[in-house]
Every structure is written in structure tokens, then in C-alpha cells.
């Protein structure tokens, strides 16, 4: 603690029950809010909004959800990325499938869907605890990942598995510029934080904390673990889901929107691991670097002829594998890796383009892999410089 | 029938390899109560060290023998893992003594990032190969019994054998030696172990080093299979369902869990996969583990979570 | 107490937790070789902290000895690690038993011999000795410690400490959560060990009655200070001790309205 709460006595119930009973907290929060609403708009430029602050706000919202589940209810979860994806895709589907559905409602519905899915994946928590649960929640991660990749209905048959929405509007307010988006996310986050804070101070919040501190003892004093745990999962997934919806609608709707397909799922997971002091740009880069190579996987094990992956623009790439036996998951090529010189530079294309070109030509997988690895290298270094 | 058995055997062997990864988790969890998310990073780091040193040593020392170069590289990589273990104990575990499991878990995530960054900046980011003379070519066996015979991958077979030996040694170490007993004691209760004179710091260095060696062996095997590169760290993700299925505290659990997951994955991919569009192995592994957990929340062989209110 | 053969001497130590919380405000006492010394006092008096300061287990709790000295046979021991201290023959049995839950009773005991270097035969001999003192443990030797009763766990914890062949055992609240009969049993064994094996005991207890019956000498702690000391028999006979710690008084039950009582109590707490 940086400061002490000594000497701050409360003389009325209202003072005792206020959200931030300690003066320093009150002023700090107020200061941060003023800075966020007034200071940053005066200082920030477009790049700052787009590349740093908007993802920062959205991931903060996701962190809020994770905080409720892990911090208040003590259920360690690694599945936050999955719920973000669910929220994003659900919001997207509501938005495009129901004509004229307001943006706000779509995002809320996305959050609600995520909450429902959260409850389903939260059921194991009634039986499985601690680290076992943490790993079990990864099941949600891999499962949703697979679902959104394999079932084209969710992505509205978009060939890339990525979706985007344009023309965002709320009650006549056109959210177009990065500044608008920043303000929208900020307002959303502030309201969510207020809701979350109040929830944790209420009866349900105390139930969560009792479960966290010792679930057996909590059960003995009459708290229903079923309700407490699942409600924590639902509330947490709701916030995480809305964060996913915002990510899809607000952050990536233009340009880089194609990332939504899959890449942001690991980003979110990483985000919550490293909540304090994140550099999100770096984070994104890291996860790209890390998750690109295993994007290549056999599409169908039955004949195992085609291998499909994603290049860095989120496009699907596919190529045929003829003489290789696929007995392993990570890399379909069982033989020794081939060390060909990278084709990339010779052709003078960006690696991603080269991959698409090559994969259409039906090059063997090892080459594709080589290229993918070159691609990270290319992106990694290029962005760093 | 032949195809089924082939898949089965493939699954068992893949399972042995998963066990090897899972073993690293179990070791550290057993002895220090830390769920080590850095296991994948350690594996990557060890494999990178092995790959690079086995390439550098012939250059530096002018040794022609690949075998000798590999042995030297293995020991250097081992020494490096000892250094890593020592540093982790000094810089991370010691200040965090008596903290909660979740805190330590988050700390290991930090270790993972540092190790990955360190590994790739020291050793580079290209794909390297480890050539320890693993037999590459598959063989056909039992051609008389099954039509077309069974295709067995020799490399997998050798790897499974190595894994089995390592596991047997570790089990003996934990159950029969004084140090092993002390390791289990520390896992149960840090403070009590300290109070009877077991030096925690020393124990932690030992166990992280042992886990480092396991990571090295796993790294060499996986690395010679797949090539050494960044994504090797994600091999750990395949170990996770194995660990929870087998039980976080059980070495035999890691083995049986590995075998179950390996077989389950392969069979599901081959027989269920085509119905739903394939690519289901990874989540199937997790779901399989989850189903087992519903019946035994501490994994198949894990120690019961004993609570006294 | 005679000055001869002082095994442990604690000189006005001050202990601060977390750099903020002052728990011991200058505690001094000494333990003679072969004696049983009891530290008495209510909750939060600082008994456990004192023991932890001696055994150097404070660091794990973010505590620190900031002033004063602790000497074992004239050697300063504040900077030693718990393991080094065990090698010098001082071992703590922690409050609340702390058995290794997933190890069997026998494994628990054997783990206690970790610091011994004389070889297997000597350890086996000590194990037999522990079993003769605690015959109950022998019958439960293969069961997991977590599934044994509280009394058995306490015995296991003491036995485990004995496996290190200590000269001095710091025993923290051995009576906690145990039935009176079991407490009696545990204390009888402690006295046996003291008399037959010559093990010195430093005992922290809330159960003043029981502790004074078995100890030779006692110190009463309140609020991190020693407020009274004396031979166990003297303490047991002291009117104030009787009233505040043994729950007895000459005039039967006292009323809280009794002002005199309040004043006398106040003297203790200031």
C-alpha cells in the first residue's frame, strides 16, 4: 500500500457505504477519469488512439471480467480468449442477421451469448478445482477456436474466417474516427467498471469471495457453490464477451479487421496473463510470432491430402500434400526439414503474398512452413525497426 | 484392422512423447507446488542450446565426430539448464517463498517470456535441426498377419523407449531416495519442510534442474522430429491435458495420461474427425481430460485434495 | 535460574513483520540445558513469533529480528538458516502440526532425518526409538498422515523432529485442538524425552495449567513483552496467574464489576 487509511472515520451510513470509502482512492479514480476523458483527448493523436489506447481499453474490459472470475471468485481460468471470440462472433452474427439491430444491442447480445457459453464451460468448476480447472478451461479455448474455423455459418461464410462490420452508429452518433471509438470504448469501460465494482460490494460479490477463500467452508455456511461459481462465470464471460465484441466492431473493423478470425484469441489469453504494464503492440507481435507456425494443420485426417493455414493477412492458405505421412500434429512433414533458400526475396514479394501464391501452386508443406517462419521473421523485424 | 492397430500404435508412441513433456510439469509441481507454465519455454531453450552447440562445437573444436559433438553439446545444454534453474531459484522463487499457488503460476509465465526471449536472442530464430542419429525411416512389421503390414516409425519407437527409461528412473528417484522424499515433503508443506531442516533453496535448484534435464531430453527428441524453432514451445500445450488427466502429482499418471491422450487423439482424429471436418485432436485431448476429471477431480493418479475445515 | 549450562539465551529481541508490525518489544529469556521452559500467554502475546525468531522461520512470514541477540551456546544464530540450525541440534515443531499430508507416517518420520549424515543404521535406530516413545505411530506407520487423527499428527510432528536427533526442541502449541486426554499423553511423552534423552524443550502454550505442570520454568508474555517469570511451581501458585491464566481465584467466580480485578489486570497489559 502506498498510503494508509488511518484516521478516516465515517460518521454516517452513507459515508460508510460509499464506493470508495478512502479519500485517496476517490481522488485517484477521479483524477484518472478526468485525465482519460479530458486530458487524453487533448494530448492524443490518431496513432495513439488507434494502436494503443483503444486496444488498451478493450483489453482492460476483458481484464475486468477475468478479475471477477479469478480475483473475486478464485476460479483460475485460462479461457478468456475463447469468451472474447464467442462475444465477437455472436455480436457479429446478431448484427448482420437481424436487420437494423442497433449496435449497442448487438454488443450486449454478444456479451449475453458469451455469458451463456461461460456458464456451460463453467460447469466443470463445480467439481474440478484449482490448477486442474485452469487447464480444463483451456478446453474452451481450443474448442471455440476450432468451431469458428470449421463452421462457416458463424463467419457468414467469409472465406478468410474473419469478419468485419462497417458503418457503426449509436443513436445517430457515427463512430468513425479513432477519437470517437476511443470515447465509445472509454464510456463503455467506465460503466462496466462501475457495474463490476458495485457487484463485488454486494451480496453476490461476498458470496464469490467466500467461495474463493474457502469453498468448503462457504458451502457449510449456506452459500450455494452452484450459484456462486456459475454466476461468476456468467458475469465474467459477459464482460469478456463484450470486450470481444468491441474488439471486433470497434478496434479491427477497418483494415486489420481480418485478424479477428483467430489471432486475437491468443492475444487475449496473453493479455490476461500479463495484465500489468502491457505493451499491446508488442503483445500482438509476440503472439503473431508465436502462433503463426502452428496455424498449419491437416484439414482432414481421413485422406490427409490438404493442409490449410492462415497467412498474415488472415487469408486462408491451403496446399496439397501428396507423399507425406501425417502422423504428427504440429508439423505435417515427418521427414527432415528442408532448408531451401527463402523464395521470398527472390520473388520480391512480401512473404504473405508469396505464401498465397505458392500454396495455390501446390508446393509441399515443408516449404510452406519454411515460408511461414520467414514470414514471422519478416514481420517481426520489420515492425521492430 | 491393420489400420486401426497402426493408429493405435502411433497414438501410444505419440502418447509417450506427451508424457515426457508432462513429466516436467509433474516434477516441478510435486516438489515445489508450482505449476510451471515455463515448461514449454524451458523445452525450447534446451533444444535451441542443444541444436546450436552441436553445430558450433565441431567448428570451434574441429571435432569431426557427430556423436562426440552431440554428447558435448548435451552436457553443455545440461549445464545451461542448471544455470537456468539456479537463476530461477535466486531471482524468482526465493523472493516468493510462501506465496500462493496462483502468484507462483503467474511468475512462471514471466519466466516463460524471459526464457523464450533469451533463447531466441542468443540462439537465433531460424529453424535448426538436431541430428542425434535417430532412425528416420519407417519400417513395416507383421506383414504376414495384416494386409500390407503395419507401418511403424522407428524414431517414435526409440523416443518412446527413452521416455520409458527416464520415467522409470525418476520414479525410483522420488520413491526411494532421501532427496526424493525431501522433494515430496517440500511439495506438501514448505514451512514444515523448512522447520525440519530441509534447505528449500537447494531443493528447488535440484528440482528445476531435473525438470530442465527432462525438458532437454524432450527437446532433443521433439527437436529432432520437428526441427528446433519457436513453435516448439507450444509442445507444452499438448502436455497440459496429459498432466491433468494423469494427476499433477503422479509420475505414473503422466505416463498413463500420455498414453490415453495419445491414443484418444489419434483414434478420434481418424474415426470421428472426418464426420465433423477434422482438426479435432487438440480440443479433443482437452475434452477427454475434462471427462476424466469429472469423475476424478484430482486426475487419475493425483493425490486427493484433502481439506479439513 | 542458575547461569550454568545455558543452552539458549535470547537478549531483548524485537521482531517486526512486514517492516511495519512490531510484535516483540524486547523479549529476553534463557533456557538451561536439559530443562523444559514454557512461554505462556494469550492469543497474540508473541509466543509463536518468539519461537520462530529462534528457529529462523520468520523470514518466510516476512518477519525480521531487528534488535537484540539470540545465542546458542554463546554462538550468535540470528543469521543462520533453519537448516543450519537443525544441524546444530535446534528444531521447531510448528503450531498446527504441519505433517506432510501425502506422505505416510513413516515417510514423515524419515523425512525428519534429512540432515543426518551418520548413515542408515543410525537413522533406523532413531526410528525405533521414536516408535517406542510413540507406539501409536507404529500402528499407523503406513497410513497417509492426512488421514490420521489430530493427536497422531501431533505425535508424528514431534517424532519427526526427534528424528533429527536434536538437543533442543521448540514446541509450539502441542495442545492445540486436542482432547485433554491426548494432551496429557503428549505432555507425558515430552517429559519422558526430557528426562531419558536429555532433550531440552522450549514450549509455547496457551494451556497454562498443563504447561506449568510439566515445565520447570515459565515466562509469561503479554503484548510482546515478558511480564512475569519464575519457576513453574511459583507461577502456578501466584494469585494473578491463577486468576488470569488458570481461571481460578480464591473467591470463586469473579464478577466483571469487580473494579479491583480490572485494575490488577490493567497492570498486566500496560
From TrEMBL, chain B:
GO molecular function, one term: transmembrane transporter activity
Biological process (GO), any one: amino acid transport
A GO CC term assigned to this protein in UniProt: plasma membrane
Keywords for the protein's UniProt record, in alphabetical order: Amino-acid transport, Cell membrane, Membrane, Transmembrane, Transmembrane helix, Transport
Coiled-coil regions, chain positions: none
Highest taxon, organism lineage: Bacteria
InterPro entries found in the cross-reference section: ABC_transp_permease (IPR001851), BCAA_transport_permease (IPR052157)
Topology within the bilayer: Multi-pass membrane protein
Subcellular location: Cell membrane
Keyword DNA damage part of the UniProt annotation: no
Positions of transmembrane segments: 7-29, 35-55, 67-88, 104-128, 157-174, 203-223, 235-263, 275-295
Family: Belongs to the binding-protein-dependent transport system permease family. LivHM subfamily.
UniProt protein name: Branched-chain amino acid ABC transporter permease
Automatic annotation (TrEMBL), chain C:
Classification via SMART domains: AAA
Recorded superkingdom: Bacteria
Domain ABC transporter: 8-248
Pfam families: ABC_tran
UniProtKB keywords: Amino-acid transport, ATP-binding, Cell membrane, Membrane, Nucleotide-binding, Transport
InterPro entries the record matches: AAA+_ATPase, ABC_transporter-like_ATP-bd, BCAA_Transport_ATP-bd_LivF, P-loop_NTPase
Biological processes per GO annotation: L-amino acid transport
One example GO MF annotation: ATP binding
UniProt family annotation: Belongs to the ABC transporter superfamily.
Protein name: ABC transporter ATP-binding protein
Amino acid at each position: 500500500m502506498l498510503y494508509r487509511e488511518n484516521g478516516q472515520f465515517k460518521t454516517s451510513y452513507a459515508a460508510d457505504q460509499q464506493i470508495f470509502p478512502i479519500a485517496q482512492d476517490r481522488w485517484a479514480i477521479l483524477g484518472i477519469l478526468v485525465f482519460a476523458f479530458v486530458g487524453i483527448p487533448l494530448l492524443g493523436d490518431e496513432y495513439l488512439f488507434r494502436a494503443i489506447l483503444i486496444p488498451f481499453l478493450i483489453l482492460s474490459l476483458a481484464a475486468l471480467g477475468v478479475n471477477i472470475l479469478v480475483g473475486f471468485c478464485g476460479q483460475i481460468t485460462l479461457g478468456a480468449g475463447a469468451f472474447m471470440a464467442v462475444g465477437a462472433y455472436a455480436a457479429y452474427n446478431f448484427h448482420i442477421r437481424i436487420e437494423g439491430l442497433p449496435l449497442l444491442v448487438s454488443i450486449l447480445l454478444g456479451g449475453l451469448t458469451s455469458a451463456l457459453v461461460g456458464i456451460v464451460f463453467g460447469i466443470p468448476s463445480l467439481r474440478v478445482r484449482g490448477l486442474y480447472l485452469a487447464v480444463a478451461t483451456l478446453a474452451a479455448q481450443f474448442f471455440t477456436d476450432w468451431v469458428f474455423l470449421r463452421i462457416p455459418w458463424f463467419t457468414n461464410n467469409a472465406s478468410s474466417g474473419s469478419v468485419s462490420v462497417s458503418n457503426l452508429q449509436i443513436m445517430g452518433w457515427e463512430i468513425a474516427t479513432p477519437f470517437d471509438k476511443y470515447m465509445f470504448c472509454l464510456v463503455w469501460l467506465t460503466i462496466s467498471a462501475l457495474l463490476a465494482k458495485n457487484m463485488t460490494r454486494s451480496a453476490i460479490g461476498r458470496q464469490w469471495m467466500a467461495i474463493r477463500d474457502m469453498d468448503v467452508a462457504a458451502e457449510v455456511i449456506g452459500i450455494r457453490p452452484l450459484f456462486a461459481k456459475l454466476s461468476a462465470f456468467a458475469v465474467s464471460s459477459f464482460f469478456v464477451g463484450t470486450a470481444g465484441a468491441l474488439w471486433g466492431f470497434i478496434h479491427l473493423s477497418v483494415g486489420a479487421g481480418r485478424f479477428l478470425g483467430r489471432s486475437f484469441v491468443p492475444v487475449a489469453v496473453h493479455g490476461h496473463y500479463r495484465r500489468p504494464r502491457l505493451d499491446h503492440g508488442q503483445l500482438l507481435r509476440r503472439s503473431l510470432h508465436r502462433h503463426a507456425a502452428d496455424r498449419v494443420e491437416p484439414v482432414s485426417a481421413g485422406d490427409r491430402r490438404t493442409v490449410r493455414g492462415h497467412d498474415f493477412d488472415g487469408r486462408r492458405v491451403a496446399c496439397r500434400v501428396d507423399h507425406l505421412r501425417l502422423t504428427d500434429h504440429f508439423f505435417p512433414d515427418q521427414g527432415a526439414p528442408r532448408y531451401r533458400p527463402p523464395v521470398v526475396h527472390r520473388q520480391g514479394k512480401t512473404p504473405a503474398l508469396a505464401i498465397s501464391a505458392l500454396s495455390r501452386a501446390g508446393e509441399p508443406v515443408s516449404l510452406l512452413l519454411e515460408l511461414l517462419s520467414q514470414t514471422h521473421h519478416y514481420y517481426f523485424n520489420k515492425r521492430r525497426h | 484392422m491393420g489400420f486401426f492397430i497402426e493408429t493405435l500404435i502411433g497414438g501410444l508412441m505419440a502418447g509417450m512423447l506427451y508424457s515426457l513433456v508432462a513429466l516436467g510439469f509433474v516434477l516441478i509441481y510435486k516438489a515445489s507446488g508450482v505449476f510451471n507454465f515455463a515448461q514449454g519455454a524451458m523445452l525450447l531453450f534446451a533444444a535451441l542450446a542443444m541444436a546450436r552447440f552441436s553445430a558450433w562445437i565441431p567448428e570451434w573444436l574441429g571435432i569431426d565426430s557427430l556423436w562426440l559433438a552431440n554428447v558435448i553439446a548435451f552436457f553443455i545444454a545440461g549445464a545451461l539448464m542448471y544455470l537456468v534453474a539456479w537463476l530461477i531459484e535466486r531471482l524468482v522463487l526465493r523472493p516468493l517463498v510462501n506465496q500462493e499457488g496462483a502468484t507462483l503460476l503467474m511468475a512462471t509465465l514471466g519466466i516463460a517470456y524471459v526464457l523464450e526471449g533469451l533463447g531466441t536472442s542468443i540462439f537465433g530464430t531460424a529453424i535448426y535441426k538436431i541430428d542425434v542419429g535417430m532412425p528416420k525411416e519407417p519400417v513395416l512389421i507383421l506383414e504376414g498377419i495384416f494386409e500390407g503390414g503395419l507401418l511403424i516409425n522407428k524414431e517414435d519407437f526409440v523416443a518412446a523407449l527413452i521416455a520409458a527409461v527416464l520415467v522409470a528412473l525418476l520414479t525410483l528417484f522420488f520413491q526411494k531416495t532421501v532427496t526424493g522424499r525431501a522433494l515430496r515433503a517440500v511439495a506438501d508443506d514448505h514451512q514444515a519442510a523448512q522447520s525440519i531442516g530441509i534447505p528449500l533453496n537447494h531443493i528447488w535448484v535440484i528440482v528445476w534442474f531435473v525438470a530442465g534435464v527432462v525438458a532437454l531430453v524432450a527437446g532433443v527428441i521433439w527437436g529432432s522430429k520437428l526441427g528446433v524453432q519457436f513453435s516448439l514451445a507450444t509442445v507444452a500445450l499438448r502436455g497440459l491435458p496429459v498432466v491433468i488427466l494423469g494427476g499433477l502429482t503422479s509420475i505414473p499418471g503422466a505416463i498413463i495420461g500420455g498414453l490415453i491422450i495419445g491414443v484418444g487423439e489419434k483414434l478420434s482424429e481418424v474415426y470421428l474427425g472426418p464426420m465433423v471436418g477434422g482438426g479435432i485432436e487438440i480440443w479433443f485431448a482437452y475434452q477427454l481430460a475434462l471427462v476424466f476429471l469429472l469423475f476424478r477431480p484430482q486426475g487419475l493418479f493425483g493425490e486427493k485434495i484433502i481439506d479439513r475445515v | 535460574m542458575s547461569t550454568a549450562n545455558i543452552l539458549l539465551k535470547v537478549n531483548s529481541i524485537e521482531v517486526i513483520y512486514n517492516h511495519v508490525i512490531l510484535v516483540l518489544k524486547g523479549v529476553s529469556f534463557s533456557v538451561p540445558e536439559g530443562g523444559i521452559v514454557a512461554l505462556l500467554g494469550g492469543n497474540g502475546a508473541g509466543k509463536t513469533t518468539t519461537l520462530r525468531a529462534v528457529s529462523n522461520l520468520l523470514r518466510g512470514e516476512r518477519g525480521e529480528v531487528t534488535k537484540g541477540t539470540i545465542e546458542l551456546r554463546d554462538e550468535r544464530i540470528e543469521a543462520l538458516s533453519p537448516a543450519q540450525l537443525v544441524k546444530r541440534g535446534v528444531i521447531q515443531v510448528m503450531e498446527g502440526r504441519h505433517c506432510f499430508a501425502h506422505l505416510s507416517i513413516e515417510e514423515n518420520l524419515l523425512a525428519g532425518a534429512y540432515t543426518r549424515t551418520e548413515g542408515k543404521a543410525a537413522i533406523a535406530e532413531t526410528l525405533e526409538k521414536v516408535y517406542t516413545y510413540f507406539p501409536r505411530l507404529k500402528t499407523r506407520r503406513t497410513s497417509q498422515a492426512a488421514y490420521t487423527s489430530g493427536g497422531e499428527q501431533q505425535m508424528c510432528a514431534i517424532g519427526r523432529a526427534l528424528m533429527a536427533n536434536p538437543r533442543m526442541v521448540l514446541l509450539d502449541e502441542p495442545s492445540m485442538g486436542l482432547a485433554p486426554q491426548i494432551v496429557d499423553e503428549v505432555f507425558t511423552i515430552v517429559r519422558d524425552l526430557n528426562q531419558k534423552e536429555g532433550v531440552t524443550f522450549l514450549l509455547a502454550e496457551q494451556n497454562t495449567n498443563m504447561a506449568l505442570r510439566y515445565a520447570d520454568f515459565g515466562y509469561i508474555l503479554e503484548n510482546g513483552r515478558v511480564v512475569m517469570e519464575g519457576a513453574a511451581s511459583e507461577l502456578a501458585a501466584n494469585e494473578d496467574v491463577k486468576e488470569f491464566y488458570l481461571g481460578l481465584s480464591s473467591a470463586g467466580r469473579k464478577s466483571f464489576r469487580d473494579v479491583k480485578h480490572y485494575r490488577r489486570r490493567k497492570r498486566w497489559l500496560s
